[in-house]
Structure formats: C-alpha cells, structure tokens
Amino acid sequence: MTDIRFALAQIDTCVGDLDANADKVMHYTHLAARSNARVVVFPEMTLTGYPIEDLALRATFRKAAWDKANWLATKLAADGLGGLYVVVGTVGTDRENSKPRNRLVVLHDGVVWAGYDKHFLPNYGVFDEFRIFSPGNKSMVLDVDGARIGVAICEDIWQDGGPVAELAKENIDLLLTMNGSPYEEGKTDTRFDLAVRRAAEVQAPLIYLNQVGGQDDLVFDGGSFVVDTDGTLLECSPMFMEDLSFFDLDTSAEHQKVGTIAAKPDPDEEVYTACVLGLKDYMAKNHFKGVCLGLSGGIDSALVAAMAADAVGGENVHGISMPSMYSSDGSKDDAADLARNLGAHYDIQPIEPLFVSFQHQLKLEGVAAENLQARIRGVIVMAYSNSKGLLAVATGNKSELACGYSTIYGDAVGGYAPIKDLLKTRVWEISRWRNKAAAAGMGIGGLHIVGNEQGSAGVPLPDGVMIPVNSIEKAPSAELRPGQKDSDSLPEYALLDQVLAMYIEHAHGRADLLADGFDEATVDTVMRLVDRAEWKRRQYPLGPKVTALAFGRDRRLPVTNAFRE
C-alpha cells in the first residue's frame, strides 16, 4: 500500500517571464510542502507561460528556459524541498531536428529527474502547435514511493490512442495530466466527461491540472479536478482563481476519498468573470494601471465600464461622455449615473464644435457624416490614452462586429475589447446578472477572480445597483442622427443573434439556415452583412474568447463573398 499526497498548484503564469514563473513555482511548492505534499503538479508550460507561439522557435529562449528548470531544481533542493517531486511544464528541444518540444519535467533531488514530451499537437481553433513543436513519441510512468504514475499533457488525453492507450497497458495507479485548456462556455462539462472516459480507460484516478489567468485573447479558467476510476468527482478547484488543493492517493483502496469540491459558478457569472479576467490580466501583463473609454449611456459601454471597474477598481476607470447634437438627455444622464455608481472619473467633452469645424471643410453627408462623429470620439479617447497612460478599451459586441456595425478608427479604437465575443442579447443577460449580484452584496472588485482569492466583497455599490437600469431597458441606438435606432439598419437583436449564432458558432451555411427555419430575406441580409464586414473585423482589437468560435484566432470568412453556400 502506498499513500501519496498530491498538491494541485493552479497558477497564473506569464508568457516569457521565466523568472516570475519560476518564483511562483517556488512559492507554491513551499506551501505544498507545509501540507505534507509529496508530488506538486503545475500547469502546461509552467516556466515559459502558455501559449508561447513562435517564442518557442528562438533557441536562446529555449536555452534560458532549460537553464531556469535546472536552477529551479537546485534551488528547491537548497531550500530543503529536493525530496518532493515537482512536475512543471517548459519548452525542450528535439535533438534530432532541433525543433522545440512541449515538455513536462519532474524536478527531484536537485536535478531535472525525468521528462516527457507532448504527443498530440493541436492544430485547430486557437492552437498552432503542430507548426511549432516536434511531437513526442514515448509514454512515461513515474515510480513515486512504489506508486506507478502515468503522465500526459493536455491534448494527449483529448485524442484516442497515443500515450493514454499505452498507459492503459501499464497497470498505473494514477494518470496525471497538466493542461493549458482555454475557457469557453460549456467546456467544463466537456472536460469532465473526457476525464471520466480516460480514467475508465486506464483503470486509475485522473488528475486534471489546468492553468488559470488571461493571456492576450485567451482566458484559462482553472477548475482543476480529480476523478476516480468510476467517474466520481474527488476534488475540484475553483474557477478563475489561483488555488492550491490536495488529493490523497491510496493505491490499495478500490475507491478514493472525496475531498473539497468548489461550487460551480452561475453560467452568466462564469462568462462575466472570464471577460473581466481577460481584461485584468491583459492590463497587468502589459503594465497598464487604468482604462479609458467613451460612455454613451448605452448598454455596451456600461457593461465594459463595469467590467473594467471589477478588474482594476472604479477609481482607475476614466469615462468620457462625448455628446453630440443628437445625444439624448436620457443617455447623458445614464452615463453620469454609471460613472457615479462605479466611482469612476467622468469628463464631458462635447463633440459638436469639432464636428462643425470638420464639416466646414469637408461638408460630409449621410453615413460619412455619421462616421465622422464616431471618429472624433475615437480621437478623444486615444488622446486620453496617450496623455494619461491608460489602456483604451473598445466597447463593441459580437453582433456589431459580425455585421460591421462599428466605425473603423471610431468606436473600434482601443487596445482591448472586453465584450467582442458576446452577442448583444448576451450583453443584456450578463448586465442583468451583474446588477443581481450587486443587489446580493457583490461590490466593485468583489468578483471571485485571480487577485481576490481571499473573497473580498469589494466596494459597496450605491443602492446595490451597478449598471443603470435604463441603460439595459432602452432601445439601443448609436445616436448619430435624429431618432436613430439600431433596428433601422439591423434585424431585431433577438432574431439577429439567433442567425449569427448558427452561422458563426455552428458553421451553418445558407441552406442550413433556411432549414433551421429562418426566412430567406433575413438569412440573405445577415450573410451579406457578415461577409462584407470581414475586413473591419481583421482590424478590431483583440478581446477574450468565451464562445466556441470567436472572431480573430478562430474564424474568418472569405473576403471575396464568392462562397456563400
């Protein structure tokens, strides 16, 4: 009989920051040792951060990463932790072709004691590993105090065959996997179902240790867990937070003991938190302390401002009201109310004098005159960004991006777009959830997220309201001409978003959409709008991916419109 305590170190790493990532490994290994852990497991490519993309092709970086792994092994031993088995991810090199490898290493007794290379290299969706890495070709079983521990890296358990099939023949006591699995709605259940199948296949419990944190347009949600041979959930870490949890393996027991199971968030909370974490980490890893954005009084800018306040505090949000001659008093009041609720900076910069000056020279009409207003606002937002060192955030949603309902160099300006993967109807749903959470006591910054692992309730909100109710309930409008409504140019969002979801996220073509029951005129209108806007989307800022198919890394449409079926 062997009893082994595993520590699941679910941490937030930064691509390229070898020193900070190694220091974090040291910190969590010390914590694990105090709780008598024997094996400490970290996420995929721990030392290098993930995904490192073409940085892996730089030989000097690979050498630096390997030197850091050796330093870490030595340092662990010097601190009296050499007896532990510390499992970290890094980048290695294939000796035969000098290509990089996605590698798992075990640090023990002051040395890099063992290594394993990822076999299956994903080349779909957001992944480009097949182009970058050389695949491994050997399975590995670790002997830890007489227990047989099989290892795998992320995609290795998603594909049939390969190392898992080989380990199924090895009579292992546990399958240990390190992962860098990005968040998307519904993926938590998919991962769990997969782990249950693999645990049954190898006839052993399975540890699924996942990365947490934002890296550019990807958000890693953590949610690490352990399943027993029969599919019982034994341990589950919280989502979106750094965490150190423990699992005790008894090799003689038919079934393992159930430990701590973190509560699963509400679906709307999950998506909101993913967007906030994406923004929060993007700012932290690019050294921004605050954001600026235009506050129109509409729901999109209101939700983005709320997310920014939850990410970095309301005092670090600079909202700019830029009313024109077409802006309603109600919209201006809603923007002011939002800033007051958030405790944000709030400036009013009327654009009419600038618009008149431009028109005196250009004499624009129609859409050109409407877009001029948006571009004037974009200039003002970027002026705040440059002068105050703030990250300008764009406020467009996925429905607008899909249909080209945004102005390039206008409301599309910014360095990050927190809601670019949320359809308009989802924006409303999530805004209602945030107000519901505020009424229940979740203040500004009270989100369960990296940096708030201690569970602070945040700064209380006036009257328990974060987003002005009128911003949620009023008919959406760009207010670029008298009486304008979004529905003048687009189908109603309730219908539009249904078509968009099927066309974009489910890859339905025209014939499929008609078979789905949508009328021909609506289908043709939406497809035309979406296809024609591809060039705009290519220039839009990046933002967090939260759906199965997001604009950017995941998907593009033919620029020529030649293929429409």
UniProtKB/TrEMBL annotation:
<dbReference type="GO" id="GO:0004359">
    <property type="term" value="F:glutaminase activity"/>
</dbReference>
<feature type="binding site">
    <location>
        <position position="181"/>
    </location>
    <ligand>
        <name>L-glutamine</name>
    </ligand>
</feature>
<feature type="binding site">
    <location>
        <position position="400"/>
    </location>
    <ligand>
        <name>deamido-NAD(+)</name>
    </ligand>
</feature>
<feature type="binding site">
    <location>
        <position position="187"/>
    </location>
    <ligand>
        <name>L-glutamine</name>
    </ligand>
</feature>
<dbReference type="InterPro" id="IPR036526">
    <property type="entry name" value="C-N_Hydrolase_sf"/>
</dbReference>
<comment type="function">
    <text>Catalyzes the ATP-dependent amidation of deamido-NAD to form NAD. Uses L-glutamine as a nitrogen source.</text>
</comment>
<feature type="active site" description="Proton acceptor; for glutaminase activity">
    <location>
        <position position="44"/>
    </location>
</feature>
<dbReference type="InterPro" id="IPR014445">
    <property type="entry name" value="Gln-dep_NAD_synthase"/>
</dbReference>
<dbReference type="InterPro" id="IPR022310">
    <property type="entry name" value="NAD/GMP_synthase"/>
</dbReference>
<feature type="binding site">
    <location>
        <position position="536"/>
    </location>
    <ligand>
        <name>deamido-NAD(+)</name>
    </ligand>
</feature>
<dbReference type="InterPro" id="IPR003010">
    <property type="entry name" value="C-N_Hydrolase"/>
</dbReference>
<feature type="domain" description="CN hydrolase">
    <location>
        <begin position="4"/>
        <end position="251"/>
    </location>
</feature>
<keyword id="KW-0520">NAD</keyword>
<dbReference type="InterPro" id="IPR003694">
    <property type="entry name" value="NAD_synthase"/>
</dbReference>
<comment type="pathway">
    <text>Cofactor biosynthesis; NAD(+) biosynthesis; NAD(+) from deamido-NAD(+) (L-Gln route): step 1/1.</text>
</comment>
<feature type="active site" description="For glutaminase activity">
    <location>
        <position position="118"/>
    </location>
</feature>
<dbReference type="GO" id="GO:0005737">
    <property type="term" value="C:cytoplasm"/>
</dbReference>
<feature type="active site" description="Nucleophile; for glutaminase activity">
    <location>
        <position position="154"/>
    </location>
</feature>
<keyword id="KW-0547">Nucleotide-binding</keyword>
<dbReference type="GO" id="GO:0008795">
    <property type="term" value="F:NAD+ synthase activity"/>
</dbReference>
<dbReference type="InterPro" id="IPR014729">
    <property type="entry name" value="Rossmann-like_a/b/a_fold"/>
</dbReference>
<dbReference type="Pfam" id="PF02540">
    <property type="entry name" value="NAD_synthase"/>
</dbReference>
<comment type="similarity">
    <text>Belongs to the NAD synthetase family.</text>
</comment>
<comment type="similarity">
    <text>In the C-terminal section; belongs to the NAD synthetase family.</text>
</comment>
<feature type="binding site">
    <location>
        <position position="124"/>
    </location>
    <ligand>
        <name>L-glutamine</name>
    </ligand>
</feature>
<feature type="binding site">
    <location>
        <begin position="294"/>
        <end position="301"/>
    </location>
    <ligand>
        <name>ATP</name>
    </ligand>
</feature>
<feature type="binding site">
    <location>
        <position position="371"/>
    </location>
    <ligand>
        <name>deamido-NAD(+)</name>
    </ligand>
</feature>
<dbReference type="GO" id="GO:0003952">
    <property type="term" value="F:NAD+ synthase (glutamine-hydrolyzing) activity"/>
</dbReference>
<dbReference type="Pfam" id="PF00795">
    <property type="entry name" value="CN_hydrolase"/>
</dbReference>
<dbReference type="GO" id="GO:0009435">
    <property type="term" value="P:NAD+ biosynthetic process"/>
</dbReference>
<dbReference type="GO" id="GO:0005524">
    <property type="term" value="F:ATP binding"/>
</dbReference>
<keyword id="KW-0067">ATP-binding</keyword>
<keyword id="KW-0436">Ligase</keyword>
<protein>
    <recommendedName>
        <fullName>Glutamine-dependent NAD(+) synthetase</fullName>
        <ecNumber>6.3.5.1</ecNumber>
    </recommendedName>
</protein>
<feature type="binding site">
    <location>
        <position position="395"/>
    </location>
    <ligand>
        <name>ATP</name>
    </ligand>
</feature>
